[in-house]
Amino acid sequence: MAGTELGCRSLFRVENDSDITTKVHQQLYAWCKNPRKNWDADKLSGPGVAEVAPGVTASLVRDDRQDGSTIERWRFHQDEGHGVWITQLTTLVDRNDDGWVWTDVLRPSGADASVPRLVSNILEVADGLDGRHRLTAEPFRAHIDDVDYLYDALLDPQRRGYLFLAGADDNVTVPLPEWADFVAKLLSRTRGIASAYALDAETTLALNSRLPESHRLRPWSIRTYLPHPELNDPRDSTRHRMLTTARIIDDSQYRLRDLLGRSACRHSTTFALPSELIRIDRRLRELLDETIVDRVVVTTQVPQASSETPREVAEPPLIDTPPVDTAGPAPDRASSGILDTLRTVVRSVIGTAEVTTEAVSRLGQLASEALRQQDSVRLVRSRIQTIESERSALEDQNTELTRTVDDGLIDLAEALSDLDTANRELRHLRGELARVGRDQADWQPPENSLDMPPGSFQELLERLDELVFVEFTGQEKYALELDEKNPLDSWARKTWNALRALNDYCRVRTSSEFTGSVDDYIIQTPPGCVSIPPNSHARDETGATENHKQYGKARTFPVPVAVDAGGTLFMGAHVKIAKFGSISPRMHYYNDATGTGKIYVGYIGPHLPNFRTN
Questions:
Q1: In this entry, which stretches build a coiled coil (predicted)?
Q2: Do the beta carbons of residue 242 and residue 455 sit within 8 Å?
């Protein structure tokens, strides 16, 4: 059974809104009636369970609590042949008309979820809050008077979701409404789970004047600010990613829309729920189970078959009637067989041998009750499957998270070991320079653009032409996938360092300054060259992997025909970018330094399949 896991979560507060329950119900009803769904929400006018469309079961549970608050949960379970999807809307409204609106989308494992249109519809009629600031349904056009509000929203300690800020300047004449509309298209799949503001040029300058350079917003870019920014720490800036002007221009609008939507959805599933909502969730789960079980109990409580003897036939009325010919035509054999079968069924189910109108009616009633009981059993079975699916998904997530944490600790230990080695060498070199009277040497390294690591794999791909001896022949999409998995950009930095090392190796190899292999280069890196940690490099794959029909093909990538007439080569040599569970990114390459004088990188992306992963 395929697992179902949380794919997207919207959570916002409401304050002093006496109509919030009505607003939610109205938007929910309209959402169900949308022609794309056409679900019959009228079948669920109160707490209970009903099939609102083929393959779609809806449930409603409600609890009026002693503290004067009301909790309510609508749940739509879709099983229409494409895996199980569950959309769940929960509301809490207290006696002061404050509360929460919480929407979860559970998806089949491996599928992409998105926030339902229902959420932004609710936000269009109700003021939702993320922390102390409004959760926008559409990008808000921000002017100079909004700078204080934007700055406070950025630093709001209670904010959970992304805050998207789109900057501008006076160098390009784009009216703010047009810029806001364009930003709205890019962020259309983040509505209800993130706030967004399109700033004019004056507002961009004013806000940037309050921010350190590391955290500023660039004109005609969109920056994603995560919760709890540390403005006094330049290193924190790597958490708050920038969608640059170049990428906005060069990349597909739909691709960027999906990228931003997936990122916002993924983030929405990571924050912890308030303890109050955790308690409410447990209570609503109990109520749903009770509702389904009660339905089964009610269905199965069918009146028992009567044990009384059949009523005696009443005396005929005392009126004269014409004589009746009792010797009518004999029933045909088929009718006799049907009657015998019916008599047997009546005797078995009702307990009487007489086929009377009352007995047949009772038989029909029992059949109807049995059909209804089948529906109830189906609901129970579906609920059990959902619970088992959620449990399995949590077990899988726990296993993957445990593996990822273990891998991260190993990576950290290795990085600290490398740092200790580098510091030890630095101390030794400084001591040697002091010993020969060069202790006043200039320790400030010269500026080199290559020393500035890319902030993402997108930027890395754009900068590959800076590496003269390295050529990328693979598909960019696999590298770009890594941007979604590593928001701190450490993988892009490690990959850039490895590419620089291969570039330096190829440079000294083609100039005959160095004559060994890449492994030799790593062990004895020439002065002034970038290296790769020895435990991060593999010179080849195993023969079993190379010769395997599936795994060998997965590691075969394009090369120029000058390298191989067939245009492809198996690339077993690879760099281990990071240990991170099943993703553990890799970079595969082919060394042709002694041929065309280049190194060809055929793949940057998640770990390719092998015997262990499959």
A1: 377-439
A2: yes
